[in-house]
Structure formats: C-alpha cells, structure tokens
Amino acid sequence: MNHKLSSGKGKMLLLGILPFVLLIALVTGIAIMGTGVENEPAAPIEVLNVEKIKLTNDGFEVKVLNSGPEEVTIAQVVVDGSFWNASYVPSPTLQRFGQAMVQIPYPWVAGDPHEIKFITSNGLIFTGAVEAAAQTPVPDVNRFAQYALIGFYVGIIPVGLGLLWYPFMRRFKTKGMHAILAFTVGLLFFLFVDTFEEGFEMATEAPGVFQGSGLVWFGAFLSFLFLIAVDQMNERRMKNKSENGKRVSYKLAMGIGLHNFGEGLAIGAAFAIGESALGTFLVIGFTLHNITEGVGIAAPLLKDRPTWKTFASLAAIAGAPAILGTWTGGFIFNPTFAALFFGIGAGAILQVIYVISKMIWKESSEKGYAAVSWPNFSGISLGILVMYVTALLVNF
C-alpha cells in the first residue's frame, strides 16, 4: 500500500515538473539555434551606460556598463570636444553586462562643467556629463562621520522633535484623535506620491535593460502585499488588542524610515558630485519636512502609555535610515537599486495608510461616527498641505 502511494506521488511530481523541463528546453534551443529568421539589423545595437564619474587629482575615473545585446568596444574618448588618451580596466571591449573603469588623465577645473564622450568601434557616441567639477569624496573615517552627522540632523533629530508633541495630542478625545490620525494619513499620502516620483526619477537614470520603472512598481506592489500578509499573521496571533497602537506606530516608523533612506540618498549624492549648496538646502528642507513625521508616528499611541524607550526606538527606526542613505548616496550610489528601494518604501507607506484608515473606519463604526467626517477630511487636507509647503523649502 505504502509503495503504491509513494509511486503515485512520484508520478504526480513528474507530471508537474515535465512541462517546465520541456519549456526550458524549448527556450534554450531557441536561444542557441535562433528562430530561423535571419534578418541583420540596419545598424549595430550598442548601449553603453555611464554609471559613475569619479573626479580625482589625476583626472576622471568613469565606470561604464554594456547594457545592450551586443559586444561593445570603446575606440576613442572625447573630453570637452578634444580627443583624449585613456586606459581601460580590464579592457576597452565589454561583453554584454560587462563593466569597465575608464581612467582619463585630464586637468579638470573646479566648478566648471565637463562633457565626456565615448565613441565605439561602430561610430556610436555615448555621453556622460559633470555639471560642476569637484573632487569626489574618498571614503574615510572622517567622511563617514560627517555623513552620519548629516543623516542624524535630517532623520533622528526632527522625528524626535515631532514626537515631543505627544503629551499635547493626548488631550484630544476620540474625534480629535481621529482627526490627528487623518492628518497622519495626509502626511503619508504626500510621502507616498513623493516617494513614487523619486523612484521613477531614479529609474530614468538606470540602464534600460534593468527596467527601472518596473522595479519601482514591483517593489511597491510586493512590499505592500508582504506587509499586509505579516500584519494579518500578527493579528491572528495577537490576543492583547491594547498593543495595536504601538504596532501601527512601528509600522509607520519603518515606512517613513524607508522614505528617509531616499532623502539621505539625495543628500549624499549632492555632496558627492560637488553640489554643496544643493546639499545644504536639502539638509535644511528635509529637517523641517521631517518634524511632521514625528507627529504622525506619535498619533497611533494616543490611547497607550509608551515609555521613553519606545519613543527613542521609534525615532531611531524612522530617522537612522537617513544616515544609511547619506552613506550610500555619497559613496556607492546606484540608480537601479535606488529605484527599487524607493518602490519598496512607497509600498510600505501605502500599507500604513491602509492600516490607519482601517483603524479610523472600525472605531468610527463602533461609536456611530462618520469615518469621512469634516474634521477627518480637514485633517487629511492639512497633512497634505503641510508636507507640500515644507517640500517647497527643499526646491528653493
């Protein structure tokens, strides 16, 4: 009997795997032998992405990636309209997805714009630009400490200051607390839209083969569903409902933390390319902008009595990613991964909007209140308006 059962299971497993094996064999055969239709392209299909330009005392170090379907050979380098010598590590010929470091000894001028063109053996031209020349920061202890301090200013301090409004907010009754939670939804909705826009902006800088826009959507969709699944699992296990507010605050802090990671990326990248003035304005703007995030994180705790350790951990979870973002943007910025991170952050923020909205709706139904009341509508509108006004400071 057991032998028959095991034999039946093995047969079912084989029937389940067989279509996949045949499909893989078919795709492999097409990839190796082709489709049988031999049409030569009218022009060579070459794509060379300039991923990063590093400015040193000796000139430029340019990291390039072959993201096209064909082999690419760099034949000549042109800097500011003049042909220039260059050395290649490991080689001027790049296979598909191959990378090379192009070292160009050039006397760049601080503050001036520079244009670097790569001409392939087939005559195609790919361009990289330096808007304002400045020596690229070298990763060392001092620079790490400076960037960490910037992230601390932008992330942890303003979120902590926003949390200080908690005692004042506790004076509100149920409708007042719902209005504050609605204000939080407004804040988060603005952050959700802003995070998506930042992700798509990064996607335009990523190599087309990696489908940066798709990474933003996939990251947002999958992170949203993942967090919903985790939340539902915790709800089934959770017996003490009084902890619900704290759980929501921690979700808020994690979602906002991913957003603040993106802010750190922008700040670090600005300083890395020599845009010190832009970096300073970003620090000031994001610092003012992020105070309101602390208010949003504190709102779900109004029915609880959290300790100072809870507030400290919330400030760290929401603010510390700005430090990681500043390091990443300043030293190892990659637009493809940045687009994915922004998408994940957008999905996390959307999940928190869903959780808070569900909380307001449930409590309003239990008490016979209107979930979309005028105070709640005003709270959402005010939250969006506050974030919009503070965001303007970043752009001026």
Automatic annotation (TrEMBL):
It is found in: Membrane. Keywords: Membrane, Transmembrane, Transmembrane helix. One of its GO terms (cellular component) is membrane. It is a multi-pass membrane protein. InterPro entries: ZIP (IPR003689). The chain crosses the membrane at residues 12-34, 144-166, 178-196, 208-230, 250-273, 279-302, 314-333, 339-357, 369-394. The keyword Lipid metabolism does not apply. GO terms for molecular function: zinc ion transmembrane transporter activity. The keyword Metal-binding does not apply. It comes from the Bacteria. This is ZIP family metal transporter.
